[in-house]
Write a structure and sequence with these properties.
By secondary structure, the protein is of the alpha/beta class. The chain has helices at 29-36, 62-66, 84-93, 103-112, 128-140, 158-173, 185-188, and strands spanning 18-22, 48-49, 52-53, 69-72, 146-150, 177-181, 194-199, 202-206. The chain folds into 2 domains: 1-68 and 144-207, 3-Layer(aba) Sandwich (Rossmann fold); 79-143, no CATH class.
Length: 207
């Protein structure tokens, strides 16, 4: 199966906590986020999510549990033929929800991330920072208990990085646990938060 990417990690993500996940390229940050999102199973060991061992959860039950975790991908993963509004509403649409039950929530969320004037535009005309905020809004539409963000400031300039960080901090103040994977030391220096540092597959935690 090849070499182990992560080895002998023991940690938890406390409720309503805020932490950075950092380390050199190839250290396993994205792999760790995928494990936390339950889209990847460990080859050994135990991962408990919301009190349940994910290796023992029937595959049919994983999507329901995964809704409690929001994830923001590094490459946005927006659908080019859908508007800003439609991209954010997509997780609810695919579950068959009626638009009337979520339209106001989607619009309010887009206003919260500063995209109230960009609701009906396609991704092609959005800047990198705007696309990132659409991705954040989409991750939040299910009101997750944990938000995972993979290099959310990697494609934006420093002012936009600070704006995105402010969104994450506000979200955390509202009660959501936040994990931000990043190489950006300047970004981490702006917040007194726990740092989880991956090196050679092992994790050190600094409170």
């Amino acid at each position: 199966m090849g070499p182990e990417i992560l080895r002998d990690l023991t940690f938890d993500i406390p409720k309503s906590s805020f932490q950075f996940l950092t380390g050199p390229s190839g250290a396993g940050k994205t792999t760790l986020l995928r494990l936390l999102f339950m889209s990847l199973q460990p080859t050994r060991g135990i991962i408990q999510s919301f009190g349940r061992d994910i290796t023992r959860i029937p595959r049919s039950e994983l999507p329901m549990l995964r809704r409690r975790v929001g994830i923001v991908f590094q490459d946005f993963r927006l659908l080019d033929h859908l508007t800003t509004y439609e991209n954010v509403a997509l997780p609810l649409r695919v579950r068959g929800k009626e638009e009337g039950s979520y339209r106001r929530d989607v619009i309010e969320l887009l206003k919260w991330v500063g995209l109230g004037e960009r609701i009906n535009v396609l991704p092609a005309v959005l800047s990198g920072g705007e696309k990132q905020r659409v991705a954040i809004a989409r991750a939040l539409i299910d009101r997750p208990e944990i938000l995972l963000a993979d290099e959310p400031t990697g494609n934006v300039d420093p002012p936009m990085a600070r704006r995105l960080l402010s969104l994450f901090l506000e979200l955390n103040r509202l009660g959501t646990a936040v994990v931000i994977a990043t190489h950006d030391l300047a970004l981490m220096d702006q917040v007194d938060a726990r740092r989880m540092i991956l090196t050679d597959g092992r994790l050190d935690i600094y409170e």
